[in-house]
Amino acid sequence: MDVEVTEEAQSRICRFSSLNHKFVDLESRIEKLTDALRTLRDAQEEAMIVVDPSDIMLKIGECFASADSDTIEEELDRQIAAKEAVLAECRDELEATKKEMTELKTKLYGEFGDRINLDKGVRLGPPQREEGKKETGLRPNTRACQQERESDIGRKERQERECDKIERETSP
Asked: Is 57 helix (H, G, I), strand (E, B) or coil?
Protein backbone atom coordinates (compact mmCIF):
# COMPACT_ATOMS: atom_id res chain seq x y z
CA MET A 1 0.00 0.00 0.00
CA ASP A 2 1.75 3.11 -1.25
CA VAL A 3 1.15 6.39 0.51
CA GLU A 4 1.30 9.70 -1.29
CA VAL A 5 3.51 12.07 0.67
CA THR A 6 3.21 15.75 -0.12
CA GLU A 7 6.20 18.04 0.01
CA GLU A 8 4.69 19.75 3.06
CA ALA A 9 4.24 16.40 4.85
CA GLN A 10 7.78 15.44 3.89
CA SER A 11 9.02 18.68 5.39
CA ARG A 12 7.14 17.95 8.63
CA ILE A 13 8.57 14.41 8.75
CA CYS A 14 12.10 15.76 8.31
CA ARG A 15 11.52 18.45 10.91
CA PHE A 16 10.25 15.84 13.38
CA SER A 17 13.29 13.66 12.69
CA SER A 18 15.57 16.61 13.29
CA LEU A 19 13.76 17.56 16.50
CA ASN A 20 13.93 13.94 17.64
CA HIS A 21 17.73 13.99 17.31
CA LYS A 22 17.87 17.31 19.15
CA PHE A 23 15.59 15.95 21.90
CA VAL A 24 17.82 12.93 22.50
CA ASP A 25 20.93 15.15 22.54
CA LEU A 26 19.33 17.58 25.00
CA GLU A 27 18.31 14.74 27.31
CA SER A 28 21.89 13.48 27.30
CA ARG A 29 23.25 16.97 27.94
CA ILE A 30 20.80 17.52 30.82
CA GLU A 31 21.87 14.22 32.36
CA LYS A 32 25.55 15.22 32.16
CA LEU A 33 24.86 18.67 33.63
CA THR A 34 22.81 17.12 36.44
CA ASP A 35 25.68 14.76 37.25
CA ALA A 36 28.16 17.65 37.21
CA LEU A 37 25.91 19.66 39.54
CA ARG A 38 25.60 16.71 41.90
CA THR A 39 29.39 16.42 42.00
CA LEU A 40 29.81 20.14 42.70
CA ARG A 41 27.21 20.06 45.46
CA ASP A 42 28.89 17.02 47.00
CA ALA A 43 32.20 18.89 46.91
CA GLN A 44 30.53 21.89 48.51
CA GLU A 45 29.15 19.73 51.35
CA GLU A 46 32.52 18.05 51.86
CA ALA A 47 34.26 21.44 51.97
CA MET A 48 31.89 22.57 54.73
CA ILE A 49 32.58 19.58 56.99
CA VAL A 50 36.36 19.46 56.61
CA VAL A 51 38.03 20.03 59.98
CA ASP A 52 41.33 21.37 58.65
CA PRO A 53 40.84 23.89 55.79
CA SER A 54 44.37 23.21 54.56
CA ASP A 55 43.16 19.72 53.57
CA ILE A 56 41.05 21.23 50.78
CA MET A 57 42.59 21.65 47.34
CA LEU A 58 41.08 23.55 44.41
CA LYS A 59 41.32 21.91 40.99
CA ILE A 60 42.55 24.30 38.32
CA GLY A 61 42.65 22.59 34.96
CA GLU A 62 44.71 19.45 35.57
CA CYS A 63 46.39 20.75 38.74
CA PHE A 64 45.39 21.14 42.35
CA ALA A 65 46.21 24.26 44.36
CA SER A 66 45.77 25.22 47.98
CA ALA A 67 43.18 27.87 48.68
CA ASP A 68 41.42 29.19 51.72
CA SER A 69 37.94 27.88 52.47
CA ASP A 70 36.24 31.17 51.49
CA THR A 71 37.84 31.13 48.05
CA ILE A 72 36.85 27.51 47.54
CA GLU A 73 33.29 28.18 48.69
CA GLU A 74 32.99 31.17 46.33
CA GLU A 75 34.39 29.15 43.43
CA LEU A 76 32.01 26.26 44.04
CA ASP A 77 29.07 28.69 44.30
CA ARG A 78 30.11 30.32 41.02
CA GLN A 79 30.45 26.97 39.22
CA ILE A 80 27.12 25.73 40.58
CA ALA A 81 25.35 28.92 39.49
CA ALA A 82 26.84 28.69 35.99
CA LYS A 83 25.85 25.01 35.60
CA GLU A 84 22.34 25.72 36.92
CA ALA A 85 21.93 28.51 34.34
CA VAL A 86 23.00 26.22 31.48
CA LEU A 87 20.77 23.45 32.84
CA ALA A 88 17.77 25.80 32.95
CA GLU A 89 18.41 26.83 29.33
CA CYS A 90 18.63 23.19 28.27
CA ARG A 91 15.40 22.32 30.08
CA ASP A 92 13.61 25.26 28.45
CA GLU A 93 14.91 24.21 25.05
CA LEU A 94 13.87 20.60 25.74
CA GLU A 95 10.33 21.71 26.60
CA ALA A 96 10.09 23.86 23.46
CA THR A 97 11.37 20.95 21.37
CA LYS A 98 8.92 18.56 23.03
CA LYS A 99 6.03 20.95 22.35
CA GLU A 100 6.91 21.28 18.67
CA MET A 101 7.35 17.50 18.36
CA THR A 102 3.90 16.95 19.90
CA GLU A 103 2.32 19.38 17.42
CA LEU A 104 4.05 17.67 14.50
CA LYS A 105 3.10 14.22 15.82
CA THR A 106 -0.55 15.24 15.98
CA LYS A 107 -0.53 16.49 12.40
CA LEU A 108 1.44 13.54 11.02
CA TYR A 109 -0.55 10.85 12.83
CA GLY A 110 -3.74 12.62 11.72
CA GLU A 111 -2.54 12.48 8.13
CA PHE A 112 -0.89 9.04 8.05
CA GLY A 113 -2.35 7.12 10.99
CA ASP A 114 -0.44 3.99 11.94
CA ARG A 115 1.59 4.02 8.71
CA ILE A 116 4.15 6.25 10.39
CA ASN A 117 6.09 5.66 13.60
CA LEU A 118 7.05 8.78 15.52
CA ASP A 119 7.92 7.33 18.90
CA LYS A 120 10.67 8.97 20.91
CA GLY A 121 14.11 7.70 20.00
CA VAL A 122 12.94 6.24 16.68
CA ARG A 123 15.22 7.27 13.88
CA LEU A 124 13.23 7.82 10.72
CA GLY A 125 14.62 5.94 7.82
CA PRO A 126 13.73 3.19 5.40
CA PRO A 127 10.93 1.03 6.79
CA GLN A 128 11.86 -2.53 7.66
CA ARG A 129 10.45 -5.10 5.28
CA GLU A 130 9.31 -8.38 6.72
CA GLU A 131 10.01 -11.55 4.78
CA GLY A 132 7.38 -12.04 2.08
CA LYS A 133 5.56 -8.77 2.81
CA LYS A 134 5.40 -5.65 0.72
CA GLU A 135 7.23 -2.62 2.12
CA THR A 136 4.86 -0.25 3.90
CA GLY A 137 5.28 2.86 5.95
CA LEU A 138 6.82 6.21 5.26
CA ARG A 139 10.35 7.09 4.46
CA PRO A 140 11.49 10.69 4.63
CA ASN A 141 13.10 12.33 1.65
CA THR A 142 16.76 11.70 2.36
CA ARG A 143 18.10 14.93 0.85
CA ALA A 144 15.57 17.15 2.65
CA CYS A 145 16.20 15.42 5.97
CA GLN A 146 19.97 15.62 5.46
CA GLN A 147 19.71 19.38 4.93
CA GLU A 148 17.53 19.68 8.05
CA ARG A 149 20.04 17.63 10.08
CA GLU A 150 22.98 19.68 8.79
CA SER A 151 21.31 22.90 9.92
CA ASP A 152 20.69 21.28 13.33
CA ILE A 153 24.29 20.05 13.48
CA GLY A 154 25.47 23.62 12.94
CA ARG A 155 23.14 24.77 15.71
CA LYS A 156 24.35 21.96 17.97
CA GLU A 157 28.00 22.83 17.31
CA ARG A 158 27.29 26.46 18.24
CA GLN A 159 25.59 25.30 21.45
CA GLU A 160 28.53 23.04 22.29
CA ARG A 161 30.99 25.90 21.69
CA GLU A 162 28.88 28.08 23.99
CA CYS A 163 28.89 25.33 26.65
CA ASP A 164 32.65 24.94 26.30
CA LYS A 165 33.03 28.71 26.70
CA ILE A 166 30.90 28.63 29.86
CA GLU A 167 32.93 25.67 31.13
CA ARG A 168 36.18 27.60 30.59
CA GLU A 169 34.74 30.69 32.27
CA THR A 170 33.49 28.73 35.27
CA SER A 171 36.66 26.72 35.71
CA PRO A 172 39.37 28.45 37.71
From this structure: strand
